[in-house]
TrEMBL record:
Record keywords: Membrane, Transmembrane, Transmembrane helix
Organism listed in the record: Hansschlegelia zhihuaiae
The protein's name: Uncharacterized protein
Annotated TM spans: 21-46, 52-77, 84-102, 122-143, 155-173, 193-213
UniProt KW Membrane keyword: yes
Length: 214
């Protein structure tokens, strides 16, 4: 008996999924590099003097973090038949993986260039827990928009901005109270506020690519 032929719908679904994954992966890498460039500029403008080793290590960590966490959000949003809360849970599960990937990338880079990495300011468990809540919420919001048929970038960027401002303000308040330097606060503001907006834009771009392939 001849094997069953793939239906046009199945082929289109496969192509759209590949288009989404490829778009998200490529743009997430660019997002990681772009955010780290902004972080470097913010540190310099705030009076910091970042070393080349630190810049390279932060860049490696930023790219690893962006790729994994944005992939998690995109996967949740792309499962069209799943409820939005499921997308949030998927994004929440990917956040600790992204934290670990960023830490590993940072350590690999510092070892490769022969410097000693900085001790962690907070435990990976605490950071992972906060990021799981933050990106779980972002994944839920983005999936909710996708389920409602939102086709413009504005609502997606607005969701990223809302999540970034809420969680970023909390992190900045804690670091400011702990006496963090101006350069560190500037870098934190970029990472905590700008990045969720960029991640939302990446997920939106992946959805657009998926629709185009259909």
């Amino acid at each position: 008996m001849d094997p069953p032929m793939e239906t046009p719908t199945a082929v289109e679904d496969g192509r759209s999924a590949l288009a989404r994954i490829g778009t998200v992966a490529a743009l997430a890498i660019l997002l990681g590099v772009g955010v780290q460039a902004l972080v470097l500029a913010a540190k310099i403008l705030a009076g910091g003097e970042p070393s080349l080793a630190g810049v390279l290590a932060d860049a490696a960590a930023g790219v690893a973090w962006a790729t994994v966490v944005c992939a998690g959000a995109a996967i949740g949003v792309s499962i069209s038949r799943a409820p939005a809360i499921a997308a949030g849970l998927i994004a929440a599960l990917f956040a600790p993986l992204a934290v670990a990937a960023a830490k590993a990338a940072n350590q690999v880079m510092t070892a490769a260039i022969g410097v000693v990495g900085k001790p962690a300011a907070a435990s990976l468990v605490a950071i992972s827990a906060v990021k799981a809540v933050e990106y779980g919420l972002l994944g839920f919001l983005l999936a909710s928009l996708a389920r409602r048929g939102a086709e413009t970038a504005g609502p997606y960027l607005g969701a990223g901005a809302a999540v970034g401002l809420v969680f970023g303000a909390g992190v900045l308040a804690l670091k400011s109270g702990a006496g963090a330097a101006a350069a560190e606060l500037a870098a934190t503001a970029i990472n905590e506020i700008v990045f969720p907006i960029g991640c939302a834009a990446v997920v939106y771009a992946g959805a657009v690519a998926s629709r185009a392939m259909r």
